Amino acid sequence: MSRRTDDGDGSRTRAAGTGARALGTAGLAVTAAGLLANGLAYLAPVLAARQLGSADLSALATTLGLIAIASVPGFGLQLAVAVHHAKHGHTDTHRATLLTAALCGSALIVATPLLIATLRLPAEALLLSAVTTAAIVVCCRTLGELQGGQRFVRLAIAMGLLAAGRYGGVLVGLLLGAGLTGSLLLGAVTAALTPIGLAALTRTADPATTSAAPPLEAGRIVTGCAAMLAMLVVSYVDLFLARQLLSADDSGAYAVGTVLTKGALWAPQVATVLALPRLAQEDRFSRTVALAVTVGCGALLILGSTLAGDLAFRLAGGPHYTHLGTFAPLFAAVGALYAVVFVLLNGAVATGVRWPAAPLWIGSVLLAAVTLSTTPRTIAGLLWPTLGAAMVTTLAMAVRTWASTPARSGRSDPAPRTAPDRG
């Protein structure tokens, strides 16, 4: 009897070790894919600065920014699909995906006359941007299915393919000297081909599960889109205010500081990616782990910025900004707080909380109202209210999460529909 018990304990230990290794592999893969995507996004304007004139460089940077903004609903779609898949299994979401993609692409086309007049962009650049945006949104559906099914290694591959399709054509066009329009054309072509490659990664769905699962409601997609849009706004509102309130030199310096903010915000995002399917199943233990990893990562970045603030600004913007090193831990703290907000926001969407992004919108409006009416027009005068808004928003999200969590004791550990995979 004792031997049988030992064997059972050993089997559970080996299973736990195998699961931990698989999750570790998945985490490394998703992290690598995120670094690849951010690296390609950074490389595009750097290479463009060496290949294009100033006017075309500005147009390309603005166009890539418009694509990033117009693609936000796609990542809201990914969130909605991932949560629905984690709860109910695979569902046919082709129609919802095509509708979302068409709306995002059409929005750019409809806004073309206005964007031509206000941003002085060529019409062909905006039309190509619409194609790229629609393709990105279509790809986000695949990302959501893989994430919701906890197929994280394949999710990482899909993220890498999407990054390559999104920026690869533009980079090749720049290297070939194709100019602004030619580079955007190659980018649109590679982006349009990317969904075909990603489709192969989701051909493992069970038809029986597909037919039994309830359809994905449009309201869930709208909620996911609003949440991702709120996260984008709250993480950029201070940068927009700096452009409005500060001098040109101080605005540029503040923009360099926000590089540290974005680094602290997105560095621990892998924890949220891995935890989301379990959050959809109301697994409080996974939420606690994701928050612990995020808080720990943020604390390390704040500490590093405190000890080496001059170096942080040198790496972010060059030697001309090292005198701002004392502000480095404040910029990092803003990003670290919003990283916690991102975890809580995903958890709120996953568990069906009403108006999950409301604290983010309120925090953004309050920050704008305070800074526009009372803040001194200095870097410190904007940075301190921004940090205060981040603290208030984080506290509001934490209180609402605590208030909306069912009173249960012990660890919630529902059986997942799909175990984390290795490949």
Automatic annotation (TrEMBL):
<feature type="transmembrane region" description="Helical">
    <location>
        <begin position="182"/>
        <end position="201"/>
    </location>
</feature>
<keyword id="KW-0812">Transmembrane</keyword>
<feature type="transmembrane region" description="Helical">
    <location>
        <begin position="96"/>
        <end position="119"/>
    </location>
</feature>
<feature type="transmembrane region" description="Helical">
    <location>
        <begin position="125"/>
        <end position="143"/>
    </location>
</feature>
<feature type="transmembrane region" description="Helical">
    <location>
        <begin position="288"/>
        <end position="307"/>
    </location>
</feature>
<feature type="transmembrane region" description="Helical">
    <location>
        <begin position="21"/>
        <end position="44"/>
    </location>
</feature>
<keyword id="KW-0472">Membrane</keyword>
<protein>
    <recommendedName>
        <fullName>O-antigen/teichoic acid export membrane protein</fullName>
    </recommendedName>
</protein>
<keyword id="KW-1133">Transmembrane helix</keyword>
<feature type="transmembrane region" description="Helical">
    <location>
        <begin position="221"/>
        <end position="241"/>
    </location>
</feature>
<feature type="transmembrane region" description="Helical">
    <location>
        <begin position="155"/>
        <end position="176"/>
    </location>
</feature>
<feature type="transmembrane region" description="Helical">
    <location>
        <begin position="382"/>
        <end position="403"/>
    </location>
</feature>
<feature type="transmembrane region" description="Helical">
    <location>
        <begin position="357"/>
        <end position="376"/>
    </location>
</feature>
<feature type="transmembrane region" description="Helical">
    <location>
        <begin position="253"/>
        <end position="276"/>
    </location>
</feature>
<feature type="transmembrane region" description="Helical">
    <location>
        <begin position="327"/>
        <end position="345"/>
    </location>
</feature>
<feature type="transmembrane region" description="Helical">
    <location>
        <begin position="64"/>
        <end position="84"/>
    </location>
</feature>
